[in-house]
Structures are given as C-alpha cells and as structure tokens.
Design a protein that fits this description.
300 residues; alpha/beta; five-stranded mixed beta sheet; 5 strands; 56% helix
C-alpha cells in the first residue's frame, strides 16, 4: 500500500521491550513443554549442580540427557533458587517439586551426575540418598570435570604459597573499585595489552589459571602500582627471580589443566571420550617428568 521501500524501513524498527520479553517467554515455555512431554515418555539422566550467584544466593541448576528420535539430546532443565539451607533434603525437594510440576516421575530417571559435595552424595542425608528411596536402581556418577578440578588443587607447598600470594594481591585490587580504576589507568598509560586483572573465585574452576596468566602478563604494571601504594612486600616478590619462575611455571601448568578441562566439555562429550583424554594426559605428564629429569625443559 505504501511501497516496498517503506516496508523495508518499517522492518528496521526494533520491537518494544515488552514484545521481546513476551516472545522470549513464549519460546521458553514452548521448549519446556516439549522437553517435559519427551521426558514423560522416555528414560533420562540428570545432572545437578549447586552454585552461588553474584548476589550470594544459592542456585540449583539441572540438565537432562535423553534419547529422542535416535539422537542423544542434552537439554537445560531448570534453574531454581535454593532456600536458606542447601542440604541434600532441600535440593531433593526443589528438584522433586519441579518434576511434579512438569509431570515427570523419578522412575524414569536412570542416572544422576553430581559433584562430590556431602549435600549431593551423602549416603544418609544427601540428595542422591533421597532419590534412591524412590528409585534404588539409579546409577550415580561423580562429575569428571569436578574430579579433575579437585586434583589441580593439590600443589607443593612452595607453589601453593606463590599462588596464595598472587591471588591475595589480585583480590586486593579487584575488590576495591578505586584501586581497580587506578590500576586500569596505569595499564592504559603504559600501553599494556590488558587493562585489568581477573578476580579469583573458588567456584569457577578455570579462574586460577586465567588469574595467574594475567598477572604474569601485567607483572611490570603491578610492580609499579604496588610501589606507588607503598606495598613493598609484593614488589620484592616481583623482583625475586625464583618467585617469578615459580609464577611462570604455575601459569604454564594451569593453562594445560584448563585446556584438558575445557576439552571435556561440550554437547558431544561422554565418559568414554573423557576417560581417553585423561589417560592420554597422564601419559603425557609421565613423559614430561622423565624429560625434566633428563634435563630437557623444552616443555616448560
């Protein structure tokens, strides 16, 4: 009626926030309904993890894996805020309430994957124990990624001290907005590749390697910053060649750990692939160790 060019111009007009919100909600509900319909007629495996968001509230996240039309489907199931307590009983109640809401029975669940926290795997009061009261045939596995992350926490005492000293100074800057802004200005003035450090957190398994790598790249900027703030203890550490060598070693080894951890993530990953990668990685470590004992340090 008003021409093709006008039609093109009208299509460029963005939708309102309410319209976008409504469409996202409709799509989300449609995905949830289709997933619930499929789960009601098939067996499924459940993956559950409890974490803490940036506001300090405990969040429970659940994923499902099931077979649909001869394909293995990995699907996000739900995210629910936990009450004041994060015990196995409360986790079980939250998941059970959601399954009842979408009319899915625990009898259809054939496997559960969790981390090794007592609230999850406790034999008497853990989440798994409550589930087994309803379905004793459920297979329980310990998350491969979590186990690999736990192994990387065991460090020789001298390297652990270096890591703690490094994290302490990083968090000193990142936890104070003014210090963080001043450090960013300093990095800009020195034309550094990066303008900020990364905050370390125990919840994010890959954060340690990224934190150490960033510190190593901003070592000179951090030295100047702590000199200006008269924090000479860390300045002396940055001037210590042995300490910096240990820092560089930690950076290298954590990058390797992070790479193997990341390689075990993804939609097509399974326990067979992960096992092969870990076995190969263990053989690689043995090879590096033998080479290092022979004086060959090309891998470090």
């Amino acid at each position: 009626m008003i021409g093709g060019s006008a039609d093109i111009d009208i299509c460029k007009i963005p939708l309102s926030n309410d319209t976008i919100h409504r469409r996202i909600k409709d799509m989300s509900e449609n995905i949830e309904q289709n997933t619930a319909k499929t789960l009601a007629n098939s067996n499924f495996a459940l993956q559950v993890d409890e974490t803490t968001d940036i506001t300090g509230n405990a969040q429970l996240i659940a994923f499902v894996r099931f077979i649909h039309e001869n394909d293995i489907i990995n699907q996000f199931l739900c995210c629910r805020e936990l009450p004041d307590f994060t015990t196995g009983k409360h986790i079980f109640q939250v998941i059970s309430s959601y399954l009842e809401e979408i009319k899915v029975s625990w009898k259809s669940c054939i496997g559960i994957c969790t981390d090794g926290a007592p609230a999850m795997t406790g034999h008497l009061k853990g989440f798994v124990a409550h589930v087994k009261e309803l379905n004793e045939n459920i297979l329980v596995t310990h998350c491969f990624l979590h186990r690999e992350a736990l192994v990387t926490k065991f460090l020789p005492s001298d390297l652990k001290i270096v890591l703690e000293q490094c994290v302490k100074r990083v968090n000193y800057i990142k936890s104070r907005p003014l210090k963080s802004r001043l450090f960013s200005k300093l990095c800009q003035a020195m034309e550094a590749k990066y303008e900020s450090l990364l905050l370390h957190t125990q919840v994010r398994w890959l954060s340690r390697g990224k934190v150490i790598s960033r510190v190593l790249k901003l070592k000179d900027e951090m030295k100047i910053f702590f000199e200006q703030n008269k924090n000479y203890e860390f300045v002396h550490l940055l001037e210590d060649k042995i300490w910096c060598t240990k820092l560089a070693y930690l950076s290298d080894i954590f990058v390797i750990f992070n790479n193997i951890n990341s390689s075990m993530q993804g939609p097509n990953e399974n326990i067979l692939n992960s096992t092969d990668k870990l076995v190969g990685f263990k053989k690689q470590i043995t090879l590096w160790k033998n080479k290092a004992q022979e004086g060959n340090l090309e891998k470090f």
